Task: structure prediction
Amino acid sequence: MTDTSRTASRLREFGTSIFTVVSALSNRHGAVNLGQGFPDFDGPEPIRRAAAEAVMSGPNQYAPLAGTGRLRHAIADWMSRSRSVDVDAEREVTVTAGATGGLSAVMLGLLEPGDEVVLVEPWYDAYPAAVVMAGGRPTYAAPEAPGYRIDAATLEAAVTPATRALVINSPHNPTGRVLDEAEWDAIERVVLEHDLVLVSDEVYESLVYEGSHRSPIGRPALRDRCIVVSSIGKTFSLTGWKVGWTVAAPALTEAVRASHQFTIFSVATPLQVGAEAALGMPDAYFEEFVDSYRVRRDLLVDGLAAAGLRPSTPQGTYFALADVSSLGVDDDLAFCERMIRELGVAAIPTSPFHHDRRSGPIRFAFCKSEDVIRTALDRLQNVGSILP
Ligand SMILES: Cc1ncc(COP(=O)(O)O)c(C=O)c1O
Result:
């Protein structure tokens, strides 16, 4: 049992993350782990070499609080290249300890005690804790499964006079959805109507299979109310580096930097050199990246469908949901545990990402080699034996 007697009460409710729980069980049973959302391969060699050379020849001392000037300019160039948005590298970009560090810096820098932040279910698990650690209170908007479309009424239901911010994630983990223009219109209306800050988590920005990534910072009405949070983790298969950033108008960036300076202060300098190389990769890299993920996506989705698991085809990210609730599963966590024990395949239940823990679809990650995905699919051909 975990002894939480010395853990601050505000954190106790969050317990151990479902990813840690599932991975531990998966290791114990030698399961193929399609739960964890990180690649089983490393990012491009030129990027790793740039960081390695920086380790050997420097710079190895503290970077400036906001990030090295060169990386901030590379991020500004990236915003222009990927979103046609002009960004001031000096006043609008902050390099953070991954997107997670960026999200924490945003909440700590922005919230007064008791301020509310609207989170959309199913959420990324760091969001509620980041809000609570900053003294805020999460409230929850719950778009309906299996479509998970966001509309103004769903968001409005979670807004109160104490609401200060709204967090949106597109491409979305775990549903794989990429929000469309009508959804962004609804979000814009709610943000303007209630004078909110929009926190836009865009870590899967480069993994869009149909259409293209839309960032709210490209909308004139949201340009000064939006904080983009992203990182190199997913786009360059370097999740362990934890190099991320925020991009926001100067007043919002001041808030982010105000907290970042006393928590992280600055991010590993040689890895910032590597991140700069990453953002300068040629267009061909990004095309090949999406193509290789599309192959993995189709392999996984076709295999899940063949096993009778009713997957939906994700428009973005490297996750696919299987709608086991429509097959009669009413406890997604227990089902995932059985799948690990009896079939040797790990996936993540989505109930932990809802405030009422309602059982729902389960999430498979396909950021794994094709052989690993095939092995998991072979094992899943027997899934009927554990379905109700
Ligand atoms: C939606 C979402 N946001 C943020 C993160 C964390 O990103 P980073 O590793 O850069 O902190 C993840 C990682 O899985 C994620 O899925």
Summary: The CA atoms of residues 10 and 263 lie 18 Å apart.
